[in-house]
Each structure stands twice: as C-alpha cells, then as structure tokens.
Amino acid sequence: MNITLYPLGAYVSGYCLPFTIELDGMDQTDYGQAVSKGLFEANYKNGDGNVLSSRCQRCGHVVIGSVVKCCKECSGIFIEAKQTDEEWIVCDYEDVPSEFVGEYDLSSDFFDYAGLLAESNLDKDVFSAGFACGLALDEIADRYVGSYSSDADFAEQWAEDTGSINTSLAWPYTCINWEWAAHDLMMDHDSFAGHYFFRS
Ligand SMILES: [Zn+2]
User: Fold this and answer.
1) Which residue from 33, 113, 130, 186 lies 20 to 30 Å from 171 (Cα-Cα)?
2) What is residue 106's DSSP assignment?
3) C-alpha 59 – ligand 1 centre gap (Å)
C-alpha cells in the first residue's frame, strides 16, 4: 500500500514534486512524519514554500512550519532550516481502498483499517467486498462468512457446515436445487466478488 502526494504550493505554481509514502506497518504518527519529510525534501526549481521548516541533522526528524532549536526526538542541536510548503494534495495511491483517500489526504480511518487488516488475517479483498456491501469497517471481520464461487456453492457449504443435511446420503442430497436454497439464504446475507457476509 502506498500513497503519492504533491506539495500544494509548488503544484499550484506549476511544479509537480511528487513523493511516495509506503504505508505498510505505519501508524498515523509515522505517516505524519513521512509527509513532513516529503514536504521538506521536495526540491523547488524556482521559488520557495510559504513556511519555514526545520530538520534535525542527527536523526532527520522534520518539523513543518517552525524552526526548533533542539530536536524533540533525539535532542540533537544541529538543525537545518528552509522554506517548504505546509500543505499537500493526493496525486496517486496503490492498494489503498478509495474509501480512505480524499483529494487532500488519507482519512484517519485508514490507520484503523490498516490495523484491523493486520490483526484479522483477512485479505484486503474481503474488506473491499465488505465496503461494497455497505458494511462499516468494524463490522466486516465479525460478519464475514467466507468465500464461495456462487450463491449455490455458499448454500451447499452452509448446509453442510451447520449440519442441516446429512451428506453421507446420496439421495435426496443429490437432488437439492442449491440455487433455490441459496435464494432464501441470501435474504440474510450480502455478497460481493465471491465474499459473503451476514446481514444485520
Ligand atoms: Zn533529532
């Protein structure tokens, strides 16, 4: 997962200075610092940003919009200052669900999503399917039933898994119209791209 941003002032002045942030494993604090570093390191060919910002020469910590005398991360005192932009816009992103990307930034919910994605062991496609079914982020893992090739396949697996049917019997098991059975089951479920969820 990554996102590419442009410093806004430079962009408005006709300079595209994109920087890309790899988001895997980041929390919101890491992300904020990565944005600050991207703004600080964007090199203007002409003109300057509208705020004075600083970077610690020992650990690289950046503060946008002020010049600190002593780095709050490492207590370093060799501070480099320059004019930078303080705002940015989104240029591009990869593997981040579009729900979490606005014109100007990632939504803060993105980091909740990334945390749940890591914790739940569910594939990101499951989350995308959940969003497509209108579920909220915190409902998806709880309501996820599984992945099936069709409604009929879902109904058949469901019947077996819940013990609704004795699969050792050839007849009448082999005569069941699973598409018809699925019709009823889907009253209580939603699906998207092969992923199935309980409806509330
Ligand atoms: Zn430092």
Assistant:
1) 186
2) B
3) 4
pLDDT in tens, 143-187: 999 999 999 999 999 998 888 887 777 787 888 899 999 999 999
CB–CB of 154/182 below 8 Å? yes
Centroid of ligand 1 to alpha carbon of 3 (angstroms): 25
- Measured in Å, residue 66 CA sits from the centre of ligand 1 at 15
- Distance in Å, CA 170 to ligand 1 centroid: 72
CA 97, CA 188: separation in Å to the nearest integer?
Answer: 26
14 CA from centroid of ligand 1 (Å): 33
Measure 60 CA to ligand 1 centroid, in angstroms.
6
The alpha carbon of 70 and the centre of ligand 1 are apart by a number of angstroms equal to: 8
Gap from CA of 200 to ligand 1 centroid (Å): 50
In angstroms, rounded to a whole number, what is the distance separating the alpha carbons of residues 177 and 1?
Answer: 42
d(C-alpha 160, C-alpha 5), whole Å:
49
In the chain, what are the helix, strand and coil shares in percent, each to the nearest 5?
A: 40, 20, 40
